Amino acid sequence: MICFVESGVSSGVLPLVPVRLATVKDVRDYGGTLTIELCLKEFVFTRSEEFTQAVVTSTGGISPTMVEGGAVQGRFCFEVDRARVLPVASIGAQLTVWSTVVEQLQMSSAFKDEPYFWVLTGVVDLGANRTSSEELRKWPHYLSYSNQQAVEIYHYRPQKSQVPQGAISIEAGGPVVGTSPPTLEVDSRYDLKRWYFGTTEPSSKDQFGWFRFRTNQDWTLDLPVALKKSWWNYPLAVALCGSFIALPPITAYVTQHYHEITLNSIDAPHWGLIVNVGLSLASGLVAAAVVLASLPRLRP
C-alpha cells in the first residue's frame, strides 16, 4: 500500500494518508540507492487519524515519528496486516474513490495550495460501442490501429472557493499522431477532458511511442505505448510489388511463345515457358522483399 506521510507536524507520529494499493514487481540497487518498480492497483480511502492509529498499534510504533530537533525517525517501508489497519475502507478504481482520496490529501500541508488534481481515466476508441462507466481503465501497452481514439483526463478541485487556472499539455511520438491542440485548458472545478489522436499504419514490426503529460510546466508524466505489427501488410505488399516487377518479362515470354500455348490437356505443356514465368515471378518477389525490407519508410 502506498501512503502519503504528512510531515507538517511539530512532534509525534506523522499522520499517514492511505492512497493506493500496489504490488512490488522489482527492487534494484543503483549506485547506493534503491529503485522500486510498482504495479499500481485500486485507490484506498479511510480516515487518516484512524488509519495512523491502527498502524501504530499493529506495528509497535515503527512508523515515521517527529522527534526533538525536527528529525524524523522510524521506517518508511514495513509490513503490516491489511485486515487490521483497513477494517473499514473504500477500495476501488472508480472516480468516486479517487475523489475522496484527493479531498483528504488536499487538507494536508503539502497539498493545501494545490490548484487542482487530475487523473488519466484511460484511452477510449470512439468508433467502438462504449458504456458509461466511472471505472478508471488500465493504461494500454498496445494501441489499436484507429484514427478515432482519445485520452480521457478528469480534473477536480476539492476547494469550492474559486475556479482553478491552469493547463495540461500533451505531447506524443512514435506511431501516435495528435489531432487536438497540444494544451487542455483547466477552466472549471471539475470536468472530463479528451485529447484526440490517431495512429500511423501498422508495419511488419512493433512500433513504439510515448505520451507526455505536463501540468503548468513543472510536473511531467511519461507513459509508453506501442502499435502492434501487422502480419499481413508486409507479405501483401511483397506479393503486389513482386507481381508488378515480374509482369514485364512474363508478358514478353508469353508474347514470344503465344502460338505454342495450348489449352488441350492431351498436348504436352510448354515447360520452358512455365519455367521462365515461374523464375520471373520468384525473382520479382525476392526483389520486392529486399527493397521493402531495406527501406523502412516505404514499408506499409
Question: Would you give an account of this structure?
Answer:
By secondary structure, this protein is an alpha+beta fold. It has 5 helices and 16 strands. α4 (233-256) runs antiparallel to α5.
| Rg, Å, rounded | 31 Å
Provide mean pLDDT, rounded: 85
Beta-strand percent range: 25-35%
How much helix is in the residues? 25-40%
Shape: elongated
Instruction: Count every beta strand, where a strand is a DSSP E run of 2 or more residues.
Output: 16
Number of helices: 5
Main beta sheet, described? 5 strands, mixed
SSE class: alpha+beta
Strand order in the largest sheet: 9-16-15-11-13
Low-confidence stretches: none
Distance between the termini: 45 Å
Based on the model shown, name its key terms:
16 strands, alpha+beta, 300 residues, single chain
Secondary structure layout plus pairing:
Blueprint: E1 2-5, E2 12-13, E3 16-30, E4 33-45, H1 48-59, E5 65-66, E6 72-73, H2 82-85, E7 90-92, H3 95-106, E8 117-125, E9 142-143, E10 149-156, E11 166-173, E12 176-178, E13 183-186, E14 190-199, E15 207-215, E16 219-227, H4 233-256, H5 271-294
Parallel strand pairs: 9-16
Antiparallel strand pairs: 1-3, 2-5, 3-4, 4-7, 5-6, 8-10, 10-14, 11-13, 11-15, 12-14, 15-16
Helix pairs in contact: 4-5
